[in-house]
Structures are given as structure tokens and as C-alpha cells.
Design a protein that fits this description.
The protein is an alpha/beta fold and 465 residues long. The chain folds into three domains: 5-149 and 273-343, FAD/NAD(P)-binding domain, CATH 3.50.50; 162-270, FAD/NAD(P)-binding domain; 354-457, FAD/NAD-linked reductase, C-terminal dimerisation domain (Enolase-like, domain 1), CATH 3.30.390.30. Helix content is 31%, strand content 25%. The protein has helices at 15-26, 42-47, 49-67, 82-106, 165-168, 185-196, 216-228, 320-334, 363-369, 384-389, 417-429, 434-438, 449-457, and strands at residues 5-11, 31-35, 110-113, 115-118, 123-127, 133-143, 147-149, 162-163, 177-181, 200-204, 232-234, 237-243, 249-254, 257-262, 265-268, 272-274, 307-309, 348-350, 355-360, 373-379, 395-401, 407-414. Strand 4 (115-118) and strand 5 (123-127) form a beta hairpin. 46% of the residues are buried.
Length: 465
């Protein structure tokens, strides 16, 4: 296959797209990837997962220096240098996006810079910034164009005072008062960043609880911890408008009353929408739902032969690791292998401190489905390693089937919950039980012992509580 003829062409170089391209190349396909942004890596590496985690890490260290170091006998005058913090964040992003470019070269994947647009079955045009057009032909085409922040019609983004997560990663100065609309992962994480750095933060949420579909008990523990850090929550409240005359104000309704919230920044974090506009789907007869998502079958196939979609542009949680697994599975299916994604064990994480990590079903979901279960929980304050580290907030909650003890859900609020959840995901992937965790030796003293103790608590035999 020569010229602009490929076995596989991928539109979008985010986690789902670039991983699909790499796996396809590993399996012997001549592969092309198309990306309209100046750098590879998509939202996750450029303006999402990676820069936000860099700022979360830096701001947590600053918070510890201000609030915790004295308890450890470390004293000093620690000051914030925001420019250096932001420069470090940008450096991390540059290293990782450069790494993706290297992986493309290593795997002999041809990169085309421009906007990908479908031009009939097996054809995709690359529209360059200079107006040039390059036509590619491919046996298989994968759409992996990701998502974009949802903009409220009555509170449009202006890039300065009413912003999306993109701009909230780059404030030139710490806001005096930041109002966050939405208490999901993005709102809580970025709200935490700027609260730690000195802002007053008010989070407005329409639901009666934070953290979306997270297990309610876990969400309540996280909320208490964040409130103790100074975040203010207005639950069962909705944004009515944003007024700018005489100073910026968010107008919020709660319990039938209108509240004026004077502020200098409003972060709108009410979710994300699939980015499928401009792809040329309609001429091919492909319709999208209200969220812009493309319908696919179990093998990621759209209604058009040879055209596939994955990641944020199809149903399911908008998570980078979900997209990556779909990228691997899709490429393997195209190569005649048994690609598969277990959607029941995809973990989700809110990277505040403490973190909230979940896998499987929540208690509320099990009750709604009429599934009989038993549960056990264990607090971090009873764990020796957590006490030694001064990390007392949080708990582990395990839900297991009442009949065979099969693990149904694990919810962790606490330090490094994002790492601790991996054990639960592994056990669930192999159809394991809470007893499997309870009978597994965990090193002492470690935070992972909280997971074992919660598993023991399922049958009422926790050892340290």
C-alpha cells in the first residue's frame, strides 16, 4: 500500500485515537492519524487530565506547606509563585505531547495536521490551516474526536470571566472569589486547586449531592472533607444568569430564593459534549443523539461499513482510560482478534484530596435494580499508615453479592484512592469476591490495608475497628 492509501486512518489524536493507531500499527496495519490541534494528545494531555493533575499536585504541596508542615516540625515562610507553577504545568504537558509524537514515529504512523472530514466510504479529507486539502483512502476509518465543554446559552464563555476548564487552568492570578457551576469531577478538582492557592470558592450544584452518580455515602464523606478545607457548596441550586454591570455576579436560585454571588471568575463545569460537528456525518446518513454521540454496535462499527467510532463520541463515561481500552479493542477487532472492553469494571476518579475512586455499582444502583447485597466499610482514621501520614479523612466501602459474595462495587474516599482502586478492579475483572481480598496478605503498614479491612467488614470481622 503506497501514497495516501492506508489500512487504518484515525481522526483525532487523543487517548482513544493515538492508542488505536499504535495498536493498529503493532498489528501490521499501515496507519495514519489526523489531528487538527498543533500538538498530539487531545484534550486529556493538552488541556484536561494532565495539566489539571499537575496543578492539583502543585497546589496540594502548597496547601501542605501552609497548613500541615508545622505539625511535622517543618517551619518556614512559603510563598506562592504562580507563574512558576503554571510554567511547570506547561512543561509536563510538553514532555508528554512530545512523547506521543515520538510514539508515532516509533510505530511508523503517518501524522496529518488538519481537520479530518469524511468524504464517502473509505475516504477522509485533511483540511489544513492553509486551506490545502489532502485526500486519504483507508480500509478502516476510526472517529476519535473526543469532546468539548458544554456551554450554557445564558452564560456563554468569554474566555476571561466566564470560562471553561481550559481557561481555568491558566488564570494569571488567583481569583478572589471563584464560582463553580457543577460539582462533578472537573468542578471539584479545579475548585480545589484555586481554593488551595487562596481563592474563595463557591460550588453551585443542581443535585442534592456532589460527585454525580458516585455512591452517596462516599460523596458525603468527600463533601465533608472539602467543606473542612473551605469550599462552600450550594446544593439543589441552579444558575439563572450572569450579570456584569457594576461587577460580575452569578445569580443563583436555591429553595425558591435568588442569591447574588459577587465574584471575579465563573467556571462553568456542567459536563462535556461529543465533538462530532464538521466531520461530514450527515451526507453518509449517520445521525447523532442530543449529546452529539454516534451510535455504534458492539464492535464500534457505525451504520457505514468500514467506519468506526470510540471514546467520548460514543456512549459511556467520558474517561481517557475508557477511550484507550476501546482504541485497543477496536484495532484488535479490525485485525481479526478478540478485542473486548469490560464496561462493568471501568474505574472513575475525582482527583481532589482526599480522592474519590469507584469501580462497579453504587449502593443506590444496586437498590434500584433490586440486587441483594451486603456491605462493609473501614475508615482511614483507623489505619496506621494513614495516621502516620496525617491522612485521617475517608473510608473504603465494599459491596458484594448476598448469595455468592461476588464483588459488585468498591468506593474509596481517601489518600491515593486512585491507586488503591486498581486492586478492586483486578479482583472484579476476574469475577472475584470480597473474601478473595480479605484472604490476601497486604503489607503493613500500608494504606491498602483499608481495602482488606473493608472486605473483612463485609462479613463483620474487621480486625482494627
Amino acid at each position: 500500500m503506497t501514497g495516501n492509501h492506508f489500512d487504518l486512518a484515525v481522526i483525532g489524536a487523543g487517548p482513544g485515537g493515538y492508542v488505536a493507531a499504535i495498536r493498529g500499527a503493532q498489528l501490521g496495519m499501515r496507519t495514519a492519524i489526523i489531528e487538527k490541534s498543533a500538538t498530539l494528545g487531545g484534550t486529556c494531555l493538552n488541556i484536561g487530565c494532565i495539566p489539571s493533575k499537575a496543578l492539583l499536585q502543585s497546589s496540594e504541596l502548597y496547601h501542605q506547606a501552609q497548613k500541615q508542615f508545622k505539625r511535622h516540625g517543618i517551619v518556614g515562610d512559603f510563598k506562592l509563585d504562580l507563574k512558576t507553577m503554571l510554567r511547570r504545568k506547561d512543561g509536563v504537558v510538553k514532555q508528554l505531547t512530545s512523547g506521543i509524537a515520538h510514539l508515532m514515529k516509533k510505530n511508523k504512523i503517518e501524522v496529518f495536521a488538519g481537520l479530518g472530514q469524511l468524504r464517502g466510504e473509505g475516504k477522509v479529507a485533511v483540511l489544513g490551516a492553509d486551506g490545502a486539502e489532502t485526500l486519504l483512502e483507508a480500509r478502516h476509518i476510526i472517529i476519535a474526536t473526543g469532546s468539548e465543554p458544554i456551554e450554557l446559552p445564558f452564560a456563554p464563555f468569554d474566555g476571561e470571566r466566564v470560562v471553561s476548564s481550559t481557561e481555568a487552568l491558566n488564570f494569571a492570578e488567583v481569583p478572589e472569589h471563584l464560582v463553580v457551576i457543577g460539582a462533578g469531577a472537573i468542578g471539584l478538582e479545579l475548585g480545589s486547586v484555586w481554593k488551595r492557592l487562596g481563592a474563595r470558592v463557591t460550588v453551585v450544584e443542581m443535585l442534592p449531592h456532589i460527585a454525580g452518580t458516585a455512591d452517596r455515602a462516599a460523596a458525603e464523606v468527600l463533601q465533608k472533607a472539602l467543606q473542612a478545607q473551605g469550599l462552600k457548596f450550594m446544593l439543589e441550586a441552579r444558575l439563572l444568569s450572569i450579570e456584569s454591570e457594576g461587577g460580575l455576579r452569578a445569580v443563583v436560585e436555591q429553595a425558591g430564593e435568588r442569591h447574588q454571588l459577587p465574584c471575579d471568575r465563573v467556571l462553568v463545569a456542567v459536563g462535556r459534549r461529543a465533538h462530532t460537528a464538521g466531520l461530514g456525518l450527515e451526507p453518509l446518513g449517520i445521525q447523532t443523539d442530543r449529546a452529539g454521540r454516534i451510535e455504534v454496535d458492539a464492535h464500534f462499527q457505525t451504520a457505514v461499513p468500514g467506519l468506526y467510532a470510540l471514546g467520548d463520541v460514543i456512549r459511556g463515561p467520558m474517561l481517557a482510560h475508557k477511550a484507550e481500552d476501546e482504541g485497543v479493542a477496536c484495532a484488535e477487532l479490525l485485525a481479526g482478534k478478540a478485542g473486548h472492553v469490560n464496561y462493568d469494571t471501568i474505574p472513575s476518579v475525582i482527583y481532589t484530596w482526599p480522592e474519590l475512586a469507584s469501580a462497579g455499582q453504587s449502593e443506590e444502583q444496586l437498590l434500584a435494580a433490586g440486587i441483594a447485597f451486603k456491605s462493609g466499610s473501614f475508615p482511614f482514621m483507623a489505619n496506621g499508615r494513614a495516621k502516620a501520614a496525617g491522612e485521617r479523612d475517608g473510608m473504603v466501602k465494599i459491596l458484594a453479592a448476598a448469595d455468592d459474595d461476588r464483588l459488585l462495587g468498591v468506593h474509596i474516599v481517601g489518600p491515593t484512592a486512585s491507586e488503591l482502586i486498581a486492586e478492586a478492579v483486578t479482583v472484579m475483572e476476574f469475577g472475584g469476591s470480597s473474601e478473595d481480598i480479605a484472604r490476601t496478605v497486604h503489607a503493613h503498614p500500608t494504606l491498602s490495608e483499608t481495602v482488606r479491612e473493608a472486605a473483612l467488614a463485609v462479613d463483620g470481622r474487621a480486625l482494627h475497628m
